[in-house]
Amino acid sequence: MKKIALILILFLSFSACKSSKNKRVVTKKARTTKTVSKKTSSKKSKTKTVTAKSNTNAESIIDYAKTFEGVKYKYGGTTKKGMDCSGLIYTSFKKEAITLPRTTHGLSTTGDWIDLKEVQEGDLLFFATKKNSRKVNHVGIVTTARVGYVEFIHASSSKGVMISNLAERYWYLSYVQARRIL
């Protein structure tokens, strides 16, 4: 009986945070563009196209994700009874009619890669938490982004859905990439 309990504990602590449920197609909402005039030093008018992003979607996604804060970890979970990291992302974006892949690996190839210095609220952060591996197995949504300060919400296998800071040693060393969906 003790051996079975030990095996179960080891299995849960080493399991990756992903699910093998059906893959989904990504649908992106149309981005609007606006033209901004910028004066240069030679007093000529230069036109630059800027993508205007709706922060409303990101705020809504983050607010919904925060409603799961404190929910226990459950592999493959997508409800208040239990949630895994990719399930949190999938469920939060689905609320805004944005369909994403269900697995962490699927999410890691969705959207556009962005530099960590450019992350904004609503972007996804990917991590490799297994020792001696750079294979992505964990994901979170950026909730706060300022220069040198990034917080994200995610489903930790040990503490459930929570908000963490990228500056924490564990997350900083595990960080792999950031991607923009919105």
Structural class: alpha+beta
Helix content: 10-25%
Strand order of the largest sheet: 5-10-6-7-8-9
Coarse morphology:
globular
Q: What's the pLDDT, averaged over the residues?
A: 81
Regarding quaternary structure, how should these chains be classified?
single chain
The stretches of 5 or more residues where confidence is low (pLDDT under 50) are 10-14, 18-53
State which percent range the strand residues make up.
25-35%
From the alpha carbons, calculate the radius of gyration and give it in angstroms: 19 Å
Question: Cα distance, first to last residue?
Answer: 49 Å
What can be said about the biggest beta sheet?
A: 6 strands, antiparallel
What does this structure look like?
By secondary structure, the protein is of the alpha+beta class. Helices cover 25% and strands 31% of the residues. The protein is built from 5 helices and 10 strands. It has helices spanning 2-14, 55-66, 85-94, 104-107, 169-174, and strands spanning 32-39, 45-52, 78-79, 82-83, 112-114, 124-127, 138-146, 149-156, 160-165, 175-180. It has a 6-stranded antiparallel sheet. Strands 1-2 form a two-stranded antiparallel ribbon. A hairpin with a 2-residue loop joins strand 7 and strand 8 (149-156). Helix 2 (55-66) crosses helix 3 (85-94). The protein is globular. The model is unreliable at 10-14 and 18-53 (pLDDT under 50).
